[in-house]
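Changelog entry: the Vacuolar iron transporter record was regenerated in this release. Current contents:
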Amino acid sequence: MAVDDYSTRVVVLVVVTSLALALFGGVGAVLGGSCVRVSATRVLIGGWISMAVTYGLLKPLDSFTDRKMGKDD
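Regenerated structure tokens:
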């Protein structure tokens, strides 16, 4: 909501989410007693894959949602 441009909003969302994924992967590694770099990387890459799949599956519904909400391009 703080960013008006759609493309910028997506980039900001990906960057903030990536930082959070790496942070929580590292915290989980510390708590679990494993290698922080490997765990943070694994969680980060898994999160990227998850975001890409979700974006790819939901992107075709944008035009349907825009029509239903009365938005025309």
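The chain is about 80% helix and 0% strand.
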